[in-house]
């Protein structure tokens, strides 16, 4: 089998080299033949926005597994154009010296044999190492790449991880393939969710139309019926409007008609209406009425106030806060003082800066502050400044105008500040925001206006800003990575959340809460914890804070036993934690060498295997996971079932 795999590998490398010679790629080449301009790249990023935003967390997770080992992770589009890159500084510097940057094409025609370009050609996950690369400068690297496909099976991108040749490992390709598969599943889920949201939008529009203005007209613009609500909205008597042509009321009539004819409907478009006294803006949805031959005969036009339309969108897209202060668990005196302070400042118009380590509940507090304020019925919009690629964060925050660039949506795209108008915007990981965007953010805070990309006009917004960070912004300011004036504008009402090791007395309370909630959710038994074990848990430093504690309890419930905790008492000073569980892909990992939760999981699997004399089916049943899942874990952890039989 191994010899067959090697032969197959030699086969696709040989075919790739032959193609490169036919493309006349020079082995001495250093840069890709095709590197697009920043303007062209911006258009690429917008076209691939959904792919980039979906892939970004998985790229972060993939990089976290190899961080510090001289690797970097790359995402390309379906043509091999680099969209996003992240990795270790040393190897990234080398890559950038070879212009492996966003906008560079990594297909075989432009840069020869490499995992990204060859995976595009072969349409399968593959690995290219050392001299298998066609150009000489890549001989010191190894790269593993896997296609990302749409739900229709079409390749829409490539995920790649590249490092030095001496670090080559067959498992690296498996990691990349698993990550690309996870991205595909997430994209498919999002597609189904969008379809459901569209259906719900239609139903909501019908229900809400009772409170809306409804007008029907034929394709020649003759107004047939007018609801009383529409007449009142426009400032006319119903009979007066019937004597008008629709374009005498609706400025964008031709656009509305063509949209319905071409696409079957028009949903939630802001339009201008000429009322008796002045020009008003409403939100319009339009639907066709077909005759017996299936041809459009009339149109139904549903007008709503813009604010109501935004609330409908907020409802559909989940732009609301769900947490309140009464859902925050804790009895520690200092922690309760923080809660009381947060309640007092909730109704203030001043900005809030929430500081605390990862996993302390910063967004939970942000939502609670919003729900305790007079803005509770208005939108709550959250954006993670560290999770969105810097090329996209500007359009995410501020939006773009119609025609701002090729491929832009015809209606433009509102930014998060517009969507949050009247409510609260939560800027998580504010310390990761690029300096140039910090300047724009400062202007929005100071002037209360926002301008879309490609627009001239300023839009007035009434938004309360809550920012959060796990960094010391004073240090970031001193190092020139964060604007001092922005820091002072955000730090008006500072809320510092204590780490879990600063409120150890709350650990039993939190464990009890998580144990009850998780066991009920998973329909499993609660796990008993002795007094001695609880003391050990209280001694542990919990670098991942409440999030890590919750993961630990969930792991316990899943495995129906408390993982070994003797290792905990030594503690850990590492503040960086990530999340993981049985049956899920969340790893709670500590980078300073302490035993990790995945190691606990490995030991527990071995223990259960021993009890079941190496029987995989019985072990999977006992662990509460599927056999295929267990087989994957056995492979990942290098567990040999034959060695566990007793």
From TrEMBL:
SMART domains: AAA (SM00382), PAS (SM00091). Residues 328-558 form the Sigma-54 factor interaction domain. Residues 206-241 form the PAS domain. One of its GO terms (molecular function) is sequence-specific DNA binding. CDD domains: AAA, PAS. Pfam families: AAA_lid_14, GAF, HTH_8, PAS_9, Sigma54_activat. PROSITE patterns: PAS (PS50112), SIGMA54_INTERACT_1 (PS00675), SIGMA54_INTERACT_2 (PS00676), SIGMA54_INTERACT_3 (PS00688), SIGMA54_INTERACT_4 (PS50045). GO terms for biological process: regulation of DNA-templated transcription. Keywords: ATP-binding, DNA-binding, Nucleotide-binding, Transcription, Transcription regulation. This is PAS domain S-box-containing protein.
